[in-house]
Prior knowledge:
Layout: E1 6-10, H1 19-29, E2 34-40, H2 42-51, H3 55-62, H4 67-70, E3 82-84, H5 87-97, E4 108-115, E5 121-124, H6 129-136, E6 141-143, E7 146-148, E8 151-155, H7 164-169, E9 174-178, H8 218-227, H9 238-260, E10 265-267, H10 282-295, H11 297-307
Parallel strand pairs: 1-2, 1-9, 2-4, 3-6, 9-10
Antiparallel strand pairs: 4-5, 4-8, 7-8
Helix pairs in contact: 1-10, 2-3, 2-6
Amino acid sequence: xxxxxxxxxxxxxxxxxxxxxxxxxxxxxxxxxxxxxxxxxxxxxxxxxxxxxxxxxxxxxxxxxxxxxxxxxxxxxxxxxxxxxxxxxxxxxxxxxxxxxxxxxxxxxxxxxxxxxxxxxxxxxxxxxxxxxxxxxxxxxxxxxxxxxxxxxxxxxxxxxxxxxxxxxxxxxxxxxxxxxxxxxxxxxxxxxxxxxxxxxxxxxxxxxxxxxxxxxxxxxxxxxxxxxxxxxxxxxxxxxxxxxxxxxxxxxxxxxxxxxxxxxxxxxxxxxxxxxxxxxxxxxxxxxxxxxxxxxxxxxxxxxxxxx
Length: 309
């Protein structure tokens, strides 16, 4: 085996995916440079930028994000097949990655997507890197799907949340997987509960008296419904519902696939306190990705050596 043919499988996980930046920085700093990068969803964004030599630019961009600046990327367009058209995010990626073809990269890069209708797992290994990345993160209901070669594609995490199998297919000597769901989802699938009374909008009624409603301006109310809180003080908005539902599905699929095809090393950053939509909290995520890798550095070195004996 070629000890230098290290592969990383970068999993999906929305905002928690900024931890991938820290993981890649730690591996590179200690000479463990991946020759194969497979990414799903946010993993495809970070992995693609790394393979294109743009990881520093990505880090500089995400560390400048604030809750207010995030609003610029929320280009509402319900006629597009999702709540957001994704045009502004795509334009941002184009600024750094326009004209870069996957097959011309020095490292092997694969973005994983899901074909709408057939449910096939699609490995994007050639063509414009921005198109491949966009297809991989096209979360249904949130971003519009992407059409490539006549196929409509959506987020790859529906079929392969942590793409270890891709790395195996590329004949890597050492496969390092990054799973962003550690501690975030309960491992107990069943929790008995007693139902309570609800109002017409689905909010739990208090025992003593019905809830008091505040009048909210129409546009502000729409913003709350889509991007923030829904009806009631703590009710989740549409984006949070979509992301959380996707997160549960992704976690269940990831567990099954990792059990059937385990990597040589699995890095699990501790990010359970970070919300899936907290894209502006990149600094702690990057730091935890770096620290999580450092905690396993000896194991990575030992495993790499053992595989070449």
